[in-house]
Amino acid sequence: MRQLPSLNMLRVFEEVARHRSFSQAALELNVTQGAVSRQIKQLEDYLGVALFVRTPQGLTLTETGTALSPHLAQAFDHIERALQAVRVPNLRQRLRIVAPPTWATRWLSAHLRAFVQRYPDISLSVTNQMGHESLAEIDCHIRFGLEAASHCSSRLLVMERHIAVASPELFNGEQPPDLRQFPLLHILHDGKRLKVWENWLAAMGREDVDAGQGLEFSTLDQVIHTALAGGGLAVIDRQMIEKELANGSLLPITPVEVVGPYGYWLDVANDKQGLSKVQLFTEWLGLV
């Protein structure tokens, strides 16, 4: 174990030695002149020698102080360079979020104005991919899934609320489209179809519809746009299509709504939980 005095004492000495002034060092360190004087006295007691003498011309380093000063300045330079080498740029100002593309486009984008107005000093960087080289830079990961992650702080933001919808052109007056006459639109997740149609049909008690038939897409946005164009029927989280339901460009086939089992989770690495920007974002998500 290294036998070192307080780094704060050494930092105070380095500032006083550089400015040759207790008062100027106090200004730089944002402390009182008395606090600076006490730190220097404690360091001198630790070393057993004086580091400064007062002369008519001002504060002067002793022989010991003169010998110590450049070594400490060099040591602090090394520490600063080492920290800058591993520090994430704009760590305090920029909040880096990875989120599913449709959630980011349809939910987060619609609410970002409120976040920016509440926290104007936080800049957001929202992406939908997380490469291994950028893991250390990610502050929050919004994840679509079935359960909490075990390797980090993980909390459920919202469960999906699935409804079956179609374009108005597929309705015959007020009569909804026949589920057996139009393609079912499916969403892929991690290369596999999500069983949203199976879950919804089970809730309806419909065993006469082949849930395996239809078209599949890599993003929910593609499913939504295909449904809007009348290309098929879709089971979609109603929270992702609030605008379309409100303006009537998509209509519910029935009032039946299936909650879950999928949801959106907020995952935060253990070493990021203490960051104020992460805490503010987490609190804001709970208010929306």
UniProtKB/TrEMBL annotation:
Residues 5-62 form the HTH lysR-type domain. GO terms for biological process: DNA-templated transcription; positive regulation of biosynthetic process. It holds the Pfam family HTH_1. This is LysR family transcriptional regulator. Signal peptide: none annotated. Belongs to the LysR transcriptional regulatory family. GO terms for molecular function: DNA-binding transcription factor activity; sequence-specific DNA binding. It comes from the Bacteria. Keywords: Activator, DNA-binding, Transcription, Transcription regulation. InterPro entries: LysR-type_TF_proteobact-type, LysR_HTH_N, LysR_subst-bd, WH-like_DNA-bd_sf, WH_DNA-bd_sf.
